[in-house]
Amino acid sequence: MAWLVVPLATAPAAHAAVTHVANPFVGATPYLNPDYVSEVGAQATADGGTLGTAESKVAGYQTAIWMDHIGAIAGDSTHLGLQAQLDDAVAAGDNLFEVVIYDLPGRDCAALASNGEIPATAAGLTEYESQYIDPITAILGNSKYSNIRIAAVIEPDSLPNAVTNQSKPACQTATPYYETGVEYALNKLHAIPNVYDYLDIGHSGWLGWSSNMNPAAQEFAKVAKATTAGAASVDGFVSDTANTTPLDEPFLPNSTLQVGGNPLDSAKFYQYNPEFDEHHYDEDMHAALVAQGFPSSIGMIVDTSRNGWGGSARPTALNSTPTTVDAYVAANKVDQRPFRGDWCNVNGAGIGARPQAQPYGSSDPIIAFIWVKPPGESDGDYPTATHTHGDPHCDPNGTQTDGNGGTYPTDAIPGYDIPAGQWFAAQFQQLVTNAYPTLGASTGGGDTTPPSVPTGLTVTGTTATSVSLSWTASTDNVGVTAYNVYRGSTKVATVTSGTTYTDTGLTASTSYSYTVTAQDAAGNVSAASSAVTATTSASGGGGGSSGCTATYTVSSDWGSGFNANVTVTNTGTAATTGWKVSWTFGGNQTVSNMWNATDTQSGASVTATNQSYDGAIAAGGNTSFGFGATYSGGNAVPTLTCTAS
């Protein structure tokens, strides 16, 4: 294997010293792993034609470097070690480097294909600290790398297993070593100013149930608060690592939608898990983490390397004809797995959104999409008569159960048995073919420039059940191919022709907030437009009175910022269709992030309006929203005004 190394003498001048920024992915120049670039290049050359051209584009996107065993630190004859990779990044003048810390004692206690080399014992913990973490941090802390922003993805699947798999003896044994090991890793990594620490939080199909999400947030807080720096030792959290859960389910935006008298989340595919996708899961987990004491500025990241679900099986429009929740979900979900627990070399998956900073705008807690799992590397092999190690979940002919009596195929790609981390040509070909957005057919590393932000977003009309929008076209170095329309945080449409859209099926007398992003053929997506708010007209029917009250509670305050919760109670005699809470701060408080409501702030005046899913409150019932804010000086509780429709 050969790759081009730029001599240090001809390297670009060193960057100015890098401070610890809020979002290391903004404005950064990503480093490309030459080992992976070589693998992709060889596959693209072998396949040739249109497929090879599309495959070659993958080499132009950053993937993380996996330290998945002690030997990976030094490298071997086919893979560069950590120091050599960083030296290459310095030579190239790149200042964003992504590394996966993944070798805990008793690693992946609930799986087999990815078990590690270190036993879950006290001696194993010592080995992890002295032979794994210490050498890694010694390299990362070298001053010659101080200009590089190093994003560390810390121990995939570890702390999530500590939450949900304590009935498994291996996980019960490993959990104390997971907690102590992650604490040690955070202490060592946080001490290096240019390292950014992101804890793995599984994915929506794992921790999305409320019975899992809050305990998970508590577990993450427990470990973080045990470190020397406390919550500050964690820069953020990463979801969907090496998984295929989609970013959004565009035709299933409402998990409580009733079909045949049952909510969608009661379908067998979801099993009452209301988190259908990573976008909503990350935003809701963010709120749960903030409630546990993490600052509202904590960043969320999604691994989009294999969650695109494109190809001919992807639905392109809502199919509203099925009359049962199972049929409705099957007809409309983009996630084509038969069982949400399928994870090993999943058949039909595709490359997802390209790595990008602030994909939903600067105010959203999701700060970046990255590719943690290099597309085309196997998840694992399975046991055979001549090979006893492996994981049955990777057997294409195997089955697994959901814990509720259901049995499903593993959905692993048939015909292959390839060990974890090794190149899987057939999987890579499939991932490229099913990429969403499509990889297109341009050559080289591909277009990486996003379109300009859409401007002039305007409400052009409303009815009791619809809102019409228009905006000014964006520009792009190649060409804009579509616009994504968001109602709050939910993508409601992808507009491929024109710059107008009418959102239908809305509730009368309800306020809705909209933003628009632009995307090009390479999958680059602009930041979100400025938001506009529209209120649907009254339906003219109904009876009973409407009214509401709002109570305000500060849940945490650390002197320069705080989190607050607001409870909205329906004091009328009929269910509300919408509500609005307003107040005026007495100081310089500034809302930085709000959940379960849409906020607007002008000076000290703040207005919070319901989201589409929480505007209806039964008579005597209540709902709540929360927010994080910054301030200096006093932080008196304001007087709230609540109106309902």
From TrEMBL:
Provenance organism: Streptacidiphilus pinicola
UniProt cross-references to PANTHER family, sorted A to Z: 1,4-BETA-D-GLUCAN CELLOBIOHYDROLASE C-RELATED (PTHR34876:SF4), PTHR34876
Gene3D superfamilies xref list: 1, 4-beta cellobiohydrolase (3.20.20.40), 2.60.40.290, Immunoglobulins (2.60.40.10)
Gene Ontology molecular function: hydrolase activity, hydrolyzing O-glycosyl compounds; polysaccharide binding
Keyword Hydrolase belongs to the record: yes
Family: Belongs to the glycosyl hydrolase family 6.
Active site per UniProt: 108, 157
Region spans: Disordered: 378-408
Fibronectin type-III domain location: 453-539
Keywords per UniProt: Carbohydrate metabolism, Cellulose degradation, Disulfide bond, Glycosidase, Hydrolase, Polysaccharide degradation, Signal
Domain CBM2: 541-645
EC code(s) of this entry: 3.2.1.-
Position of the signal peptide: 1-16
Taxonomic lineage: Bacteria, Bacillati, Actinomycetota, Actinomycetes, Kitasatosporales
Protein name, as recorded: Glucanase
Enzyme class label: hydrolase
